[in-house]
Amino acid sequence: MSRKTSPPPKGKFFAPDPESKLLMWDMVRAMDIDLAAALRTNTLPVATLSAMMQACNSCPEPKLCAVFLDRRDGHTDQAPSFCPNGTRLAALRGSTAKTEISTE
Questions:
Q1: What totals of helices (H) and strands (E) does the chain contain, helices first?
Q2: 27, 69, 75, 93: least surrounded by Cβ within 10 Å?
Q3: Phi-psi sector, 34: left (phi>0), alpha (psi -120 to 50), beta
């Protein structure tokens, strides 16, 4: 007898669509941001990274974001204007190791 599995619950830690993924990782790569270095130097506090993941997960425009990245062959200097993490990503891209990115 096979056990029927239900889809994962929706909420702040789950993508709204089981087939979707957080495009934040693609945007970080496209903008050439070194998250490991930012975390290691505390330029990017873990709480801020968590808030960024939640903002990306809640974004109403994931399809538009995917098109944005696709049309730029995965390379861009800035996040699109509709990106809920645009300001933080820009700060990370231009940050120095001693500048902390705001959680607000």
A1: 5, 0
A2: 75
A3: beta
